[in-house]
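Task: sequence design from structure.
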């Protein structure tokens, strides 16, 4: 059976046929349904859409990838305070595969927290979690952990999700190498293996999708030596995040309680180093002079090197470098990671 056809001129009406009044009638009658534009700036109901994959420079046995959580439509995000954010090579990849370079807005070493801002165009918006709706469920509550563990996702692939239960809400005595977990308030211990390589900075939610906390680092319990799976609750992080976003300074006292900083005189006499004058509280640890024939000179340090790591400890300023060096035992080898001409170089030096 042949189906009659209309002339080609009748197949597609002219633009004038779609009068505004007629389109309005179609909409009101339900015969034409508008397709809403994607609201990428909305608080997301899919927690995985707010999780960002981070890629930077790996150092020694430290990973070159990590995870972050978007907390604003403008591209503010949080992650753990670690080596990735201090190397200058960090790239953030959103859930839809967009790539951005982030700037550091602020950090809190005592909360192991960093707040970053994606270098996005003003028109760019991002799905994010509403951290003001965060909950702190009791032990026994089922949770979900979203992260880029083991470098599974590199573009717009979904991040990994692990199901678990909150096992305890306690203070944590743990660390990694010489690094001690600094947070004094309780954290959420999880019964699932959530703190994998690259997972630090990931998002923990309850089964309803409400934010619970941020996945921490890979740590070992100080007494048992067992690996610890934990998250820092948003109840603890939110006041710190608010302070950083508002421009207030987060004071750090953790180092002053542990070691006496190396004085400038001893730094020059014993180590053979002179740093740039510490005119600001956060003056970077730039090496200004190296004494010829000194410990530093023999190890290979040079003028203009920026010290970014001492063993596994991040160095944010010359003040922190003096504190770190003051806590080292004489005669032991120490690895300094320095940035020289945009290249990271490990320098092994023996403590004088």
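Answer:
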């Amino acid at each position: 059976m042949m189906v009659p056809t209309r002339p080609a001129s009748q197949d597609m009406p002219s633009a004038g046929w779609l009068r505004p009044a007629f389109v309005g009638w179609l909409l009101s009658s339900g015969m034409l349904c508008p397709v809403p534009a994607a609201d990428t700036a909305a608080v997301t109901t899919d927690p995985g859409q707010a999780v960002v994959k981070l890629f930077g420079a790996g150092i020694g046995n430290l990973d070159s990838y990590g995870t972050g959580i978007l907390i604003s439509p403008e591209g503010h995000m949080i992650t753990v305070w670690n080596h990735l954010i201090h190397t200058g090579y960090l790239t953030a990849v959103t859930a839809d595969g967009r790539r951005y370079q982030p700037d550091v807005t602020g950090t809190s070493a005592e909360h192991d927290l960093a707040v970053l801002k994606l270098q996005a165009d003003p028109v760019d918006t991002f799905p994010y979690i509403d951290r003001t709706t965060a909950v702190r469920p009791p032990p026994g509550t089922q949770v979900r952990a979203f992260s880029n563990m083991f470098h599974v996702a590199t573009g717009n692939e979904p991040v990994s999700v692990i199901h678990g239960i909150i096992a305890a809400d306690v203070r944590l005595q743990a660390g990694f190498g010489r690094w001690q977990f600094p947070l004094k308030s309780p954290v959420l211990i999880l019964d699932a293996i959530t703190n994998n390589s690259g997972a630090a900075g990931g998002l923990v939610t309850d089964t309803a999708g409400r934010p619970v906390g941020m996945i921490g680092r890979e740590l070992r319990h100080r007494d048992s030596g067992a690996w610890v799976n934990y998250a820092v609750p948003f109840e603890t992080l939110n006041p710190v995040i608010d302070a950083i976003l508002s421009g207030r300074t987060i004071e750090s006292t953790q180092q002053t309680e542990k070691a006496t900083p190396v004085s400038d005189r001893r730094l020059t006499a014993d180590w053979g180093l002179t740093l740039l004058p510490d005119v600001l509280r956060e003056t970077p640890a730039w090496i200004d002079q190296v004494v010829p024939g000194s410990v530093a000179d023999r190890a290979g340090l040079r003028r203009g090197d920026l010290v970014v790591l001492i063993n596994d400890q991040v160095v944010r300023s010359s003040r922190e470098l003096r504190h770190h060096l003051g806590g080292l035992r004489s005669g032991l080898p120490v690895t300094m990671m320095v940035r020289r001409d945009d290249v990271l170089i490990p320098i092994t030096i023996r403590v004088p």
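The CA atoms of residues 261 and 323 lie 4 Å apart.
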